[in-house]
Amino acid sequence: MNTLGHKLRVTVFGQSHAKAIGCVVEGLPAGFRPDMDRVAAFMARRAPGRDPWSTKRKEADAPEILSGMVDGALCGAPLSAVIYNSDQHSKDYEGLRRTPRPSHADYTAWVKYGESYDIRGGGQFSGRLTAPLCFAGALALQLLEQRGITVAGHIAAIAGVEDEATDFARVERSALLALSEKPFPVFSDSAGEAMQQAVEAARWEADSVGGVIRCFALGFPAGIGEPMFDGVENRLAAALFGIPAVRGVSFGDGFAAAGMRGSQHNDPFVTDGKAVYTRTNHAGGVLGGITTGMPLVVNVAVKPTASIGREQDTVDLQEMVGTTLVVHGRHDPCIVPRALPVVEAVTALTLLDMLMEE
Ligand SMILES: Cc1cc2nc3c(=O)[nH]c(=O)nc-3n(C[C@H](O)[C@H](O)[C@H](O)COP(=O)(O)O)c2cc1C
Fold this sequence. Notes:
This protein has eight helices and 18 strands.
């Protein structure tokens, strides 16, 4: 339901326009002193209202820690944090209970929860619920870093405009770290410009665009993951599909592998006499659900934002007749840039959980 992980467990709670959202994190090591400035910097990458392509909703997204930390160090008790909601425009959402937005969760929430559902701001299905995930993920990223593991990603594509291709066998740690410093994390700034233009064009046309996020894990050891239903792919896919608007998860070459020959797709094994590597990394660092020790490469497809300012067909659920809808309120014309740190956070939480299980 709202809990992710086995040994490291994160439970997310709240609704977009409730008093607060938050999370409870269990399994973090006692004595760990998170760098809270870095936690804040990481969360700011997801926070709304900072970029032209982001919703105009302004939220500080500052977590208030309620328990689990004493004098800056974790004490072993569950860590709980809340983020207060302050900038709500609930009246923008009143009509949506009756006329659901195409492609949002309004309709399925009505089917499941009936009139009791809190529709304000998308309720529990809002992208806002990913802020607590970023808080927990920021801690996981720091703990992975202590073990020499870097998790970071880039915007691989928006509206069909692709970032520079990466050699999955030779991903530079310094290049990944530089990405997180960029306001628009792409390897090729000219591709990034073209992507931002596509987002801007969609915004002017009261429309939206989607894209692909690619996340890497470097330094993650070989041999992690269980076969069949508990492999690294299974666990990451289950977790990443928890992020609203995610439509696909693949590894390495992903769906493109289906069109390749074995001679193109196979990754030949090589050795330096001490360890085994692969010359290429089409597999994205995982074979049989178990990590190879090569860079882990996961691709996440994000759909175009459902809430667009154009007239669309929908149904009046009270009268059971067809009608039209123009969505009001403040919405990102492209979710991809704000979803990138969420993908990093969820990847880090899942990988740390799997390491703790070993
Ligand atoms: C960071 C983030 C921000 C989002 N912002 C919006 C938004 O402004 N408008 C919108 O319609 N959907 C937004 N979404 C996506 C919806 O929450 C999502 O499409 C909806 O809950 C339905 O779930 P599904 O797309 O996974 O089926 C956002 C998602 C994320 C991760």
